[in-house]
Design brief:
Order of helices and strands: HHHHHHH
Number of helices: 7
Radius of gyration: 24 Å
Structural class: mainly alpha
Shape: extended
Helix content: 55-70%
Largest sheet: none
Length: 150
């Protein structure tokens, strides 16, 4: 449930989540991180750069208020890359596809426990993380026809 945006949840569900978080996490660090993540997610839903910047300031204010080390570290990282983050609203360009491919490649490398042959490693990466392969439209093997079989 914590992976769902808060705007997609009804108020009763949100109350239940916070109630369970209070019971399980007496320091409220998980709830603070969930709110911080939602504030950051809402920043990316902004229609323009100015609105995004205002929402980013709200995120920074939350990070300072809650004093949770993980949230503070995330806010510091976003602050370091703030110009690049806000550039998204000028270009609407993202490096998400590249990052996704890199994660897949790292996962393949970990699962393989070391390739001895570089061409096999490359083939495995292209199979899992590369562009979809085009299947041939014709085949050299002709289907067996039961009506003309001897």
């Amino acid at each position: 449930m914590l992976r769902v945006g808060q705007e997609r949840l009804d108020p009763g569900t949100i109350d239940k989540i916070f109630e369970r978080l209070r019971d399980a996490d007496t320091d409220d660090e998980v709830a603070a991180a969930w709110v911080a993540l939602d504030l950051l997610r809402r920043m990316y839903q902004a229609p323009d750069r100015d609105t995004a910047h205002r929402r980013l300031v709200t995120f920074y204010e939350w990070a300072v208020t809650v004093e949770v080390p993980e949230v503070t570290r995330m806010a510091t990282t976003i602050d370091t890359w703030q110009d690049e983050v806000l550039a998204f609203f000028d270009t609407r360009a993202s490096n998400a596809p590249t990052e996704s491919t890199n994660v897949k490649i790292k996962s393949i490398r970990r699962a393989a426990r070391g390739f001895r042959n570089c061409s096999n490693y490359r083939a495995r990466i292209l199979l899992h993380a590369g562009q979809p392969r085009r299947l041939p439209t014709t085949t050299r093997i002709r289907p067996y026809n039961l009506t003309t079989a001897p």
